[in-house]
């Protein structure tokens, strides 16, 4: 009777809980039993593992084999456990030393030939293996992804026989060399390419400096999409923790985690997207657009064309920075700390207020169009700006002082000031932080209260207005919020819808 234990990792949301693969070989009629709440794809691993072992020139033991994937109450799916199961059987039958598997974790799907195929969600498992102090064995196609976890020893495997030789000490596999792994990010679109729109660029600068949500409204062709695409270039670079979180989400979502590493994501879903596509879901919950935009920008063009029920699901993650997908068996928590930038036309035809006079929309049509957006959703957008049409100039050349580099410098200085003062961007201040860092003088506070009453702003809108005013002060490196900062912040708030 022989028992071998191999460590592996499951995938639950963007987490990687530990799974212990126990292989027990006993005397009796040859049989292989797999227990531990395996899904159909895991149950099929029995046949893949058998063929992989035999086709690698190894012996598949003709004994009664019991495989347990613990913990038993955690659902397991996919082919990620194939490699751990095969190594457990080989260790239990004495073909590799069981002791060599003590400080190792394995991920990988096996081909019938014994080749090791890549799996998704490797980066969260790599981060967890690093924290557990173990070496991680992964398919070679996943090695670069796993190596993003610093201070982790990664073994890249091509096939099962190569690993058997490694564990038997005949041909040890050298740890994967991650030198030169970090890629050079491609340049962001430059702000200087936007013609005119001084007020819109100012709003974009304020949004970047304080991580505020932003809504552009204006006729077609005024540059709303062009402006929104420039926002990621103004934001501070991702630090290592943020970059790993973004890459881990891409890994789980089957995207290539090294793509544009380590740039902030910019997601631009079509207005026909469903609620599940936007916030995540499915029978096996997958991250949606708001999670794929984590630490980046979510741009919703033609905002009123989205289904209202779809937009309403944004209200909770805009406040909490995460989304919880509830299913009968479990609740999956996905991060969703994104910056929302939206664009819309002022009316169904898009030309309300345009000097061309093209608009033929009646007042009822305009009201129905605007009613597609609820007050609570608009309340959560800090900056509202109308983008007017600029004079046509086909030979426009970039103007000095309005490029992305100079604006990003101002944003970085403002963010550094905020991090030193409160440890987060102004948009993420909680109520105690708001009271401590966004204080006004008595006279300015009374003036603001009067203005909020006249504009019929909610208390939430007033708090967000104060955060914007704090950002305006930070852009000027001012210690206190002054009347001019509050007045400018008020210009970005519409009256109650």
Automatic annotation (TrEMBL):
SMART domains assigned to the protein according to its UniProt record, in alphabetical order: AAA
All copies of domain MCM C-terminal AAA(+) ATPase, residue ranges: 286-387
Source taxon at top rank: Bacteria
GO MF annotation terms: ATP binding; DNA binding
The entry's keywords: ATP-binding, Nucleotide-binding
A Pfam family hit: ChlI
Alphabetized InterPro entries for the sequence: AAA+_ATPase (IPR003593), CHLI-like (IPR045006), MCM_dom (IPR001208), Mg_chelat-rel (IPR004482), Mg_chelat-rel_C (IPR025158), Mg_chelatse_chII-like_cat_dom (IPR000523), P-loop_NTPase (IPR027417), Ribosomal_Su5_D2-typ_SF (IPR020568)
Sequence similarity: Belongs to the Mg-chelatase subunits D/I family. ComM subfamily.
High-level lineage: Bacteria, Pseudomonadati, Pseudomonadota, Gammaproteobacteria, Pseudomonadales
Protein name, as recorded: Magnesium chelatase
Cleavable signal peptide: none
């Amino acid at each position: 009777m022989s028992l071998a234990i191999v460590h592996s990792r499951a995938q639950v949301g963007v987490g990687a809980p530990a799974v212990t693969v126990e292989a027990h070989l006993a005397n009796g009629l040859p049989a292989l039993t797999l227990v531990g709440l395996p899904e159909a794809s895991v149950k099929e691993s029995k046949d893949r593992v058998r063929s992989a072992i035999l086709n690698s020139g190894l012996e598949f033991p003709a004994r009664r084999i019991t495989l347990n994937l613990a913990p038993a109450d955690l659902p397991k799916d996919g082919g990620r456990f194939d490699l751990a199961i095969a190594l457990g059987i080989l260790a239990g039958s004495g073909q590799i030393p069981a002791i060599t598997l003590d400080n190792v974790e394995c991920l990988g799907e096996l081909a019938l030939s014994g080749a090791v195929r890549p799996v998704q969600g490797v980066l969260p498992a790599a981060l967890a293996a690093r924290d557990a102090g173990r070496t991680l064995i992964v398919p070679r196609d996943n090695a670069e992804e796993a190596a993003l976890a610093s201070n982790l020893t990664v073994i890249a495997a091509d096939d099962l026989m190569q690993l058997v030789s490694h564990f038997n000490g005949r041909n040890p596999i050298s740890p994967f060399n991650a030198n030169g792994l970090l890629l050079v990010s491609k340049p962001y679109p430059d702000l200087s390419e936007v013609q005119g729109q001084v007020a819109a660029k100012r709003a974009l600068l304020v949004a970047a400096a304080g991580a505020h949500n932003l809504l552009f409204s204006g006729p077609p062709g005024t540059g709303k999409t062009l402006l929104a695409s420039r926002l990621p270039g103004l934001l501070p670079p991702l630090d290592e923790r943020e970059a790993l979180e973004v890459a881990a989400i891409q890994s789980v979502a089957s995207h290539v985690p090294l793509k544009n590493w380590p740039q902030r994501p910019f997601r631009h879903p079509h207005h026909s997207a469903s609620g599940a596509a936007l916030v995540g879901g499915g029978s096996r919950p997958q991250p949606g657009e708001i999670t794929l935009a984590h630490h980046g920008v979510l741009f919703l063009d033609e905002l009123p064309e989205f289904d209202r029920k779809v937009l309403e699901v944004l209200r909770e993650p805009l406040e909490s920075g995460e989304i919880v997908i509830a299913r009968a068996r479990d609740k999956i928590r996905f991060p969703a700390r994104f910056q929302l930038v939206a664009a819309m036309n002022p009316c169904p035809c898009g030309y309300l207020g345009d000097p061309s006079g093209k608009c033929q929309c009646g007042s009822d049509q305009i009201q129905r169009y605007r009613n597609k957006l609820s007050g609570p959703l608009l309340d959560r957008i800090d900056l509202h700006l109308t983008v007017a049409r600029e004079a046509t100039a086909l030979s426009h050349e970039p103007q000095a002082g309005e490029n992305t580099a100079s604006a990003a410098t101002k944003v970085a200085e403002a963010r550094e000031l905020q991090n030193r003062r409160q440890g987060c961007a102004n948009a993420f201040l909680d109520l105690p932080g708001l009271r401590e860092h966004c204080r006004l003088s008595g006279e300015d506070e009374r003036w603001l209260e009067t203005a909020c009453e006249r504009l019929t702003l909610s208390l939430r809108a007033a708090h967000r207005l104060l955060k914007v005013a704090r950002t305006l002060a930070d852009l000027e490196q001012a210690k206190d919020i002054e009347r001019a900062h509050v007045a400018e912040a008020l210009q970005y708030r519409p009256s109650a819808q």
